[in-house]
Amino acid sequence: MQVAIRKARAEDAAAVARLFHETVHRVNAIDYTPSQLHAWSPKIRPDSFWRQRFRKHQVIVAIADHTLAGFAELGADGYIDAFFVHHRLQHKGVGRQLMLALFQAARARRVSRLSADVSITALPFFQNMGFQLARRTKRFYRNQVFRQYHMVRSLRR
What is the mean pLDDT of the chain? Predict the structure, then answer.
């Protein structure tokens, strides 16, 4: 599968919003209850929400066959705030290409360590990409408790 990675643009906001919501409800459903999924993403957020995130973080998107295949957000400090791959494109290499692009972007910013608080569902992927478990955490969001894993990865050569 040919995947192009590029910086997110304002016109990507609607597709990112839809991908985020659908991925939460279709992919994460194996590890979370319907109440947790609804708390996590009760509806598709407006484009303005995502455009604001595009300004706050370095957001990259993966495009396959002219369609949004995934997106990832990287903070200036190396924190990965979001990392999602389209539910139909799981286990096809899109996530790996996105993560490798994040590694490259972080190194270009002279960031030597990445971190993320990942879901139960994402834990195996992050481990496969060389992240180490720093600690187990719980997040309280909209009256729901979410088990998460704080992961770290050094980018030093």
Answer: 94
